[in-house]
Amino acid sequence: MATHTGSEGIVKFAASGGSVAQVAEVRSYTLEQSADTIETTTMGDANRTYTSSLKTFTISMDCYWDETDTTGQGAIDVSTEVDFELYPEGTGAGATYYSGSAIVTSVSTTASFDGNVEVSFSAQGTGALTETTV
Fold it and tell me: What sign results for the dihedral spanned by CA atoms 129, 106, 26, 82?
């Protein structure tokens, strides 16, 4: 079983319909997938039962702010639909990556007197999340 470190990861974003470009200064990201369930319990059942329903996903990302990254961080604006690619193990041949579209739901910029300026992005997936290999 192969293991990977977070430093191998690459994140690419683009305004919907544009070419995806690598986002600069990424510190971390999270891709969360979930599915709704529908209760199917009926009278007389001793235990609740469920069936799976619609899937969804969200993305969040933390970066050191880079105002010169106009095609990466600059493509991510609140309420914008973006296309993305997440490469947990880099872009080498055979590497797994995730792609899809999402709507940016928040952008947060923070700074402290003794630290770097940071920016965080969150997005709600829209449509299917695709898992592919390079």
Answer: positive
